[in-house]
Amino acid sequence: MVSGKPSNNKTSKFGKINNIFLILLCLSLVFLGKLDLIAARNLKAFMSDFLAPITFLFNKPVKEIASVLEDVKSATSLREENIRFKSQIRRLNVWKSKTESQELELLELRELLKVIPKKNNQIITGRIFTAAGGIFANTVLINVGEKDGIVIGQPAISSLGLVGYVINVGISSSRILLIIDINAMIPIYLTDSNWPAVTQGQNGELLKIRFLSSEAKPLEGEVLETSGHGGQLPSGINVGRIVRSFSGNYYVKPTVNFQKLTYVSIITNFNSKYSSKNNFNGFAPLQKPMPTIGLKGINSSGTRNSESLKN
């Protein structure tokens, strides 16, 4: 009978040796991995240092070529832009010559019709103190007044057109009634069809057209200018353009943006027919009707008695 103990001892010794070998192998692999990582890092740094000058030498001509190409592209763009500008200058010169010709013709016609003014407009420009709009009236206050030659009734304008007219004057300030105020009524005419009318403010962005003939046919976008009727304002000042509402009614959109007004110019050499140091409410005073002869009756002799009726 054979005993099993020697066989077990051999197996146990073989297992221990195998375990030790595996542990040493793992440690060797870890050590080699560390060495491999350090070596790879050092090799990468060496290659970077070695290739840096070569890369610089190759990149320099490439950058120079890119810069040359960019300059060529920029020169081509500038050439095209120069050609476009020359074309625009030629068109502007043509328009300028046409405008000068038309201006000379217009001046000649005005001189022929004796409507050209003998003196140019004299203006005083003031800065606005208050914002446009209010609960009761749309007025603005400016920092020029009686000492600057401002008189009630004089028109106030901006670079875009009519702003309003002076309704109150102090020593160093003046109040202007804006054309968007409901109390402001401006005699105007339609520049395309020459129909006269009157605009009235609505305390809003648009003006109402009043007293326009039923035969008139306004055009959307048509320009309106002051007509000068009644002597309240000079003629030829831009007021606005005609716009059409969804309901089909025509209104006037002022050319002036009253929310962005900063400076206003007063035409000081125009004295309104209604200029006065008395209170001025913005309207032309009503004219008293001429006395008329009316029939009163027949007297006893059969002749008619008449008397002057004054309304």
Written overview of the protein:
The protein is an alpha+beta fold. Helices cover 35% and strands 24% of the residues. The protein folds into 2 domains: 30-116; 123-267, Rod shape-determining protein MreC, domain 1 (Thrombin, subunit H), CATH 2.40.10.340. The protein has one helix at 5-113, and strands at residues 123-127, 139-142, 155-157, 162-169, 174-178, 185-190, 196-201, 207-210, 223-226, 238-244, 250-254, 263-267, 292-298, 304-309. The strands form 3 sheets. Strands 1-12-3-4-5-2 form a 6-stranded antiparallel sheet, with no helix packed on it. It has a 6-stranded antiparallel barrel with strand order 6-7-8-11-10-9. Strands 13-14 form a two-stranded antiparallel ribbon.
Q: What is the correct CATH architecture of the largest domain?
A: Beta Barrel
State Rg. Answer: 47 Å
Major sheet characteristics: 6 strands, antiparallel
As for the CATH topology of the largest domain, it is Thrombin, subunit H
Number of helices: 1
In helices, the fraction of residues equals 25-40%
Category by helix and strand content: alpha+beta
Could you name the ranges where pLDDT drops below 50 across 5 or more consecutive residues?
277-311
Tally of strands: 14
Amino- and carboxy-terminal Cα gap: 162 Å
Morphology = elongated
